[in-house]
Amino acid sequence: MEDGVGSTLRNLLKSPLGIISGGRGFKGIFSKNEQSEETEEALKEELITILDEEEGKGAVNLFEKEMIKRVLKLYETKAKEIMIPRTSVFAVNIEDDVCDIIDEIIEERYSRVPVYEKDIDNIIGVVHIKDLFAQMRKGNIDCINLRGIMKQPYFVHEYKSIDEIFLEMQKNRTHMALVIDEYGGFSGIITIEDLVEEIVGDISDEDDEYEVDEPIFRISENTYKVDGLTSISDVNELLEIELPTDVNDTIGGLLLGTLGKIPNLEEENEETNAFFDDVELKAIKVSDKRIETLLVKLKPKSFLDI
Questions:
Q1: CBS domain location, by residue (predicted)?
Q2: Which distant-in-sequence residues (6+ apart) come within 8 Å of 261 by Cβ?
Q3: Which of 87, 117, 145, 248 has most Cβ atoms within 10 angstroms of its Cβ?
Q4: Tens digit of pLDDT for each residue in 234-262?
């Protein structure tokens, strides 16, 4: 097994992205034959062990090791875990005045925008700003037909693995996937940039379509400021804690569900925090619809815990 894993390691180092774009995703990187889930997991663990050893020898640097680990995690990650949720997505109604639509798109500086008809759950296409500009150069803006220039939407289920999505987006030459839930409703979007960032980390862009702050920011040794939309599984993994994941997906949703309502931070006696064993969650910024930012406070480890 060592020779096969060593060969895989060399291939991954040559091109982590190439492993995915080769056509089969993670499940095809070890062998042309189908492997059981247990075998795949064992091979993955073996590869990670070799990576750690190679890093110790100086043959692999930390960036390369982390990038390869991210590639190995792709097949486990589902669309709903990395998507931009519908509440944060800018979309336009095909029935609105075309001049108003163009003004909004230019003002918000989005390059690709979902288009819906009557209801946002009914996405009918995606319009690219370059196609709008091409039509605008031809003359009368009022005559622009959005239906004629928008692209067909690429829909994916929220539980589809992101390595499969990456492959399909490459094959179809599309830059945006529309995520739908089990009822066919619109859940959010995934861009090709989101998928690449899952491998190489955050990509800074002065014209980033959906610019956000660092989702988990360390304030002190045991206190972190966390975006409410951050998944509980990500918080658990990064902070090495065990918050419950059986009911809620996001950290903000977990605190909201525990409190039973969105807290009024201006009320002196309002309950704004909740405890989960040795972890405290405290709301510090809210909107009418959700808990936007919260603090995660960890109990300091005693000498006996270490």
A1: 83-143, 149-209
A2: none
A3: 248
A4: 899 889 899 999 888 899 999 999 999 99
* Distance, CA of 229 to CA of 245 (rounded, Å): 14
Sequence-separated (6 or more) residues with CB below 8 Å from residue 305? none
Q: Which residue is listed with tokens 């998928």?
A: 195
Structure tokens at 191: 């861009």
Residues 8-60 have pLDDT tens digits of 444 554 444 444 444 444 444 444 445 556 666 677 677 777 777 776 777 66
- How high is the pLDDT of residue 30? 45
Evaluate whether 56 touches 64 at the Cβ level (below 8 Å): no
Those residues with Cβ within 8 angstroms of residue 222's Cβ, 6 or more apart along the chain or in another chain: 297, 298, 299, 300
Structure tokens at 19: 């492993």
Q: How many residues does the chain have?
A: 306
Q: Return the residue matching tokens 């930390």.
A: 62
Query: Is the model's pTM score more than 0.90?
Result: no
Q: Of 65, 63, 59, 131, whose CA–CA distance to 98 is shortest?
A: 131
